[in-house]
Amino acid sequence: QAGKFRPLAVTSLERSSALPNVPTVAQSVPGYEAGSFLGIAGPAGMPGAIVERVNREVRRVLALPDVSRRFAEWGGTPSPGSPEEMRHHVEGEIAKWKRLVEATWVAGLYQGTGRIPLPEKKVKIPIFGIYLAWN
User: Fold this and answer.
1) Nearest to 78 by CA among 12, 24, 35, 130
2) How far apart are CA 109 and CA 5, in angstroms?
3) Does residue 86 contact residue 131 with C-beta atoms inside 8 Å?
């Protein structure tokens, strides 16, 4: 806003509300997306009623006008959803980045083994279904 730098593009699929005049990389490279997000999770075995209450309360706070305005000022987009939606989002991100790493030279960097160490079994943690995306 001060005009001290000129952003070339944002890496989200859609333009940022904080930088509405800045194009997305996807406008030049279709499908390109490399965003970040912040999620809320709890310890394994947390009762479903607690997960749902945390989800409900965090969603209520994110809906407050002051909170929404602050996130917009920071370039963040609150995306509250259900625990299942958050789990789906996290699983999609893991799959996307795993494919990218395995398809590039990055995979060979891990101790020269050529493979990425992944857990042998899935770890289950409750996910509250709230994530905040930054462009």
Assistant:
1) 130
2) 34
3) yes
Task: Tell me which amino acid residue 106 is.
Answer: V
**Would you say the pTM of this structure is higher than 0.70?**
no
Q: What type of residue is 50? A: I
Percentage of residues of the chain with pLDDT beyond 70 = 76
Half-sphere exposure of 77 (CA within 13 A, CB side): 14
Query: Could you identify the residue written with the tokens 């209520």?
Result: 60
How are beta strands 36-41 and 76-80 bridged, if at all? Answer: unpaired
Question: Cβ of 17: how many Cβ atoms within 10 Å?
Answer: 13
Cα–Cα dist 2/18, whole Å:
13
Where residue 131 falls among pLDDT bands split at 50, 70, 90? Answer: very low
Q: Dihedrals φ, ψ of 94, to 5°?
A: -60, -45
Q: Are strands 36-41 and 127-134 parallel, antiparallel or unpaired?
A: antiparallel
